[in-house]
Specification:
The protein is of the alpha/beta class. The protein contains ten helices and 13 strands. A five-stranded mixed sheet has the order 3-2-1-4-8, sandwiched between helices. The two termini are about 25 Å apart. The protein binds adenosine-5'-triphosphate and magnesium ion.
Length: about 375
């Protein structure tokens, strides 16, 4: 069986050019919800045709907002519901793979021509991947070298030493079994998958501007928070924290002795902003409960900023918040007060043409769609 994995070197092609006039979908199956975006290329712009989100919790008998592990059958049931409810007409596009299901490493290779690399990388990759070659799908690309020849990607603790005769290869591996599961989901949902892409590359494409300064992208999901530093279009460091929006809801529910469902609803409605619908005491408790998780996530963000800054003697001064958690009311103000960097909430739909009356709502819900918009954008870009 062969799979077409994302060719990771395509992160950052610029202009949108239509391969065809066909509409394209991007589907992101997250831990707590699935999102879809349908785009069409028109005169060099990506036009938003439709979008939608569906909570996966109810398909596994748990509350909305909770992370859930579903069978392929249940996921496709949810996707079919989602596409019907969102009036999705296209069945062709890209599907994201969770970062946690991938293995990303950097290979130090001699500088050789492309054809030799093609032969050498899979052999070299065996040293990094603890699985038989027949069980994994590989994708890789040569990282453009940095100004000082420093390591361009750093998941391992020690910075790699590179010298003039060597080059770094960003290698991505995914277990075929995981791809097979996704293929099953795609087949039973009648989706024609043009490529699979690891979510961090999709989110980067839709959320980042074209600046060259390093940016810390933070994806606030349900069960986890993913952080990655992107510089000149290349992911240089990744960090996974097993804490997310679900923990905020859990703490809130416990603190006010509410059901999870109610806590989830209140979190989304008022977040960190006091509301006249609640007493002063309740407002206080809500804020304290939400901040008890958020402050821990934010101190981890600061820790990542600091350690990257120290290691490379560089200041990462920009933080971009994505993921559903970035829609928490009041998060922007809190982040600006707390974090030692500029903070921006991602607005992935700003890369698309949308009806004026939808602009505000898309800005509000946008962070959660970073991955799905990024997938659809990739498929629209000219090869
Ligand atoms: N308006 C909102 N305010 C606060 N939190 C929100 C809001 N909308 C969604 N969330 C929270 O965001 C989280 C889900 O985010 P998202 O949809 O990005 O995660 P996911 O993609 O399902 O998970 P992952 O990326 O970890 O696989 C949930 O905890 C949910 O409660
Ligand atoms: Mg997600």
């Amino acid at each position: 069986m062969s799979f077409s994995l994302a060719n990771i070197s395509k992160f950052f092609s610029s202009a949108v050019g239509s391969k065809s006039e066909a509409s394209i979908i991007g589907i992101d199956i997250g831990a707590s919800s699935a999102k879809v975006v349908q785009l069409r290329a028109s005169r060099g712009r990506a036009v938003l045709e439709t979008y939608g989100e569906i909570s996966l919790g109810p398909y596994g008998g748990v509350a909305i907002g909770k992370a859930v592990k579903l069978t392929a059958e249940k996921i496709s049931e949810a996707l079919l519901d989602l596409m019907r409810e969102a009036n999705v007409t296209s069945r062709s596009g890209g599907l994201s793979i969770p970062f946690s299901a991938s293995l990303v490493s950097v290979l130090e290779m001699p500088k050789v021509d492309k054809d030799s690399l093609k032969r050498m990388v899979p052999i070299e990759a065996r040293k990094y991947i603890p699985l038989p070659a027949s069980e994994v799908t590989l994708d890789w690309f040569a990282i453009p070298s940095g100004e000082h020849g420093e390591s361009a990607f750093d998941q391992v603790e020690e910075p790699k030493v590179s010298h003039a005769k060597m080059q770094e290869i960003l290698l991505v591996a995914i277990h075929n079994e995981i791809l097979r599961d996704y293929q099953k989901v795609a087949e039973s949902s009648a989706i024609e998958v043009n490529f699979y892409e690891i979510e961090i590359f999709s989110a980067t494409r839709s959320s980042m501007g074209h600046g060259t300064a390093p940016v810390l992208v933070v994806d606030l999901g349900a069960a986890t928070t993913k952080m990655y530093i992107v510089e000149r279009g290349v992911v240089r460091l990744t960090h996974l924290l097993t804490m997310g929006g679900q923990h905020m809801t859990d703490t809130l529910a416990r603190s006010l002795t509410w059901e999870f469902e109610k806590a989830e609803r209140v979190k989304r409605e008022i977040g960190l902003i006091a509301s006249s619908a609640y007493s002063i005491d309740e407002n206080d408790k809500i804020k304290t409960a939400l901040l008890s998780t958020l402050s821990r996530v934010f101190s981890e963000i600061d820790r990542v900023l600091l350690s990257y800054g120290q290691r490379y003697n560089k200041n990462v001064s920009h933080v971009l918040l994505t993921g559903g958690g970035a829609s928490l009311p009041g998060i922007s103000e809190y982040a600006k007060q707390t974090l030692h960097a500029d903070v921006e909430i991602a607005n992935p739909f700003s890369h698309t043409e949308v009806p004026a009356f939808l602009k505000d709502v898309l800005k509000q819900i946008g962070p959660g769609f970073a991955v799905s918009v990024g997938l659809a954008l990739r498929d629209l870009k000219q090869e």
